[in-house]
Write a structure and sequence with these properties.
heterodimer, A: mainly alpha, ABC transporter involved in vitamin B12 uptake, BtuC, globular, B: alpha/beta, Rossmann fold, 6-stranded mixed sheet, 4-stranded antiparallel sheet
């Protein structure tokens, strides 16, 4: 029963990793851009929530009403103002620019918020739990996180496959030149994709901040988990990204059960094994 | 076939004067003068590398040009980016079809109406190319070359263009397929759409156009009504000998 418990906790943890990874997966799918600053943007969202929560005395989960639109707007401006200029045949410029952004963000946060470890205080909900079966109990917050991840991915799936904007995302990803012949403004479509990506990042950042401590230096670590989840799931597949997050979460949770020191390592080992067995991930997109 | 024709003194639908185009240091077009009247079908012929595709890319805004070198309905559009051209009523069937592989057949059609729509609907395109009815949900890549070409034409029509540019729509297709595609074109014109086709097959171009332009090395070497042109004139214009 202990192992069942371990796996369940791992699945729920995987929801958070899936949220980390979804935005990364989305923009890679639309514009082949690998955003090295993705993890730091998650931390930006956590600090933004902290500032709003403390400034207005709000519950951290309520700050989402401000942080999500804020990050959406930041994503649009970031893409339109900077990252669009880096896109082209060469894949190196976006990597370099987002790497630079990552450093700027970390140091900016250090200036404003200091290196102190912070946490979003959500009160009773942090420790509430539900009894499920066989004496296993799950935390309310992890359940909320997992459900949020599923809803976000289902919502994005609808956006991509049921709306004109979704068709425009996919068409631009397939063939940017022909997309322009259809009247699609690539710069605007890319900016919207980054905006949606950072809206998801906002949710991930707030849930991260409620779950654990954060400080300006933890971004790259979150990026690593996000990367691993995306690669395990297969590039460009959103449901694959959820599966990747869950596999990472379960591996870490099993590792931690064996020995608390093994948690992080177990996740990386699971990632490496899948990379060896299925180099293109579990659910790669049929069309590349 | 009856055609609407404006008086020769009237304003052309598309009027191009002294158009030049460059790829870096390489000059591809050297002062092209060109006009299309509303209701006409105009064909452009020329060998590989004559500048036909470059010329269409200039009209569609894929290559930036001087603002005044291209006039559409009297208004200068030479400097508009590609994504704003289709809203003006100029749609392109690109060489090689270029359907979107991630989209279904129907999604490929619908994306054609992203920036502009009108009388042409998915149902009307199906009316023109009935096979689409059964393949609406198929991925675009599952279709044969000829079927893809028809969807590409339908996709361009979805923006309800006043001018439809067709770049080598017969390339790589079997003769019977080419015939069924060309047979559909008059029905497109009936809706008031003007056609500008680029065609390697000179006979096909002559047969279906009201006027033909021949390009050679980035210059117009011949222009006229098919009936008025002799074989020798065309050979001279096409090959330069």
């Amino acid at each position: 029963m202990q192992w069942v418990d371990t796996v369940i906790q791992g699945v729920l943890l995987g929801g958070l990793y899936a949220l980390f990874a979804t935005g990364l997966s989305l923009i890679f799918g639309v514009m082949r851009l690998v955003n090295i600053a993705h993890g730091d943007l998650i931390v930006v969202a956590s600090f933004a929530a902290l500032a709003v929560a403390e400034g207005f005395g709000m519950h951290p989960l309520i700050t989402l009403l401000a942080v999500v639109p804020l990050m959406f707007g930041l994503g649009y401006v970031l893409q339109r103002g900077i990252l669009n200029l880096t896109l082209g045949k060469d894949i190196l410029p976006p990597l370099l620019v987002t790497f630079g952004l990552s450093i700027i963000i970390q140091n900016g946060l250090l200036e404003v918020f200091t290196a102190d470890s912070q946490k979003l205080k959500a009160g009773a909900i942090e420790t509430m739990s539900l009894q499920i079966f066989g004496g296993i109990s799950v935390g309310v917050l992890p359940v909320i996180t997992f459900v949020a991840a599923v809803l976000v991915i289902a919502g994005l799936q609808l956006l991509f496959f049921r709306t004109m904007l979704g068709s425009a995302f996919r068409a631009t990803s397939d063939d940017p030149d022909t997309a322009r012949l259809m009247g699609i403004d690539n710069r605007h479509v890319f900016a919207l994709a980054m905006a949606v990506s950072l809206a998801v990042v906002a949710l991930a950042g707030v849930l991260l901040g409620v779950r654990t401590n954060f400080d300006p230096s933890i971004g790259p670590g979150r990026l690593l988990y996000a990367f691993e989840a995306v690669i395990i799931g297969g590039l460009g597949s959103l449901w694959g990204t959820l599966a990747g997050g869950v596999i990472l979460g379960v591996a870490q949770s099993i590792g931690a059960r064996i020995d608390p020191g093994l948690q992080i390592l177990a996740g990386h080992i699971a990632f490496l094994i899948i990379l060896i067995v299925r180099p293109r991930g579990l659910f790669p997109r049929a069309v590349d | 076939m009856t055609r609407l024709r404006q008086g020769s003194g009237g304003q052309a639908l598309l009027e191009i004067t002294g158009l030049t185009a460059f790829y870096g240091d390489f000059q591809a077009l050297f002062g092209i003068d060109f006009r299309v009247e509303a209701g006409e079908t105009v064909a452009i012929i020329g060998s590989n590398g004559a500048g036909k595709t470059t010329f269409l890319r200039s009209i569609t805004g894929m290559i930036a040009n001087d603002r005044d070198s291209i006039r559409w309905d009297g208004a200068p559009i030479g400097d508009l980016p590609a994504n704003r051209i289709v809203a003006q009523g100029i749609a392109m069937v690109p060489e090689g079809r270029r359907l979107f592989p991630s989209l279904t057949v129907e999604e490929n059609l619908r994306i054609g109406a992203y920036a502009r729509s009108g009388e042409w609907t998915v149902e009307r395109v199906i009316d023109l190319f009935p096979f689409i009815a059964e393949r609406r949900r198929a991925p675009a890549t599952a279709l044969s070359g000829g079927q893809q070409q028809m969807v590409a034409i339908g996709r361009a029509l979805m923006s309800n263009p006043r001018l439809l540019l067709c770049d080598e729509i017969s390339l790589g297709l079997a003769p019977t397929i080419i015939k069924s595609i060309y047979d559909a074109l008059p029905r497109i014109c009936e809706g008031g759409t003007t056609l500008l086709i680029v065609e390697q097959d000179i006979r096909q171009a002559m047969q279906m156009s009201d006027r033909v332009y021949c390009l050679q090395e980035g210059r117009v070497t011949l222009e006229g009504r098919p009936a008025d042109l002799t074989h020798d004139q065309i050979r001279e214009a096409y090959f330069g000998m």
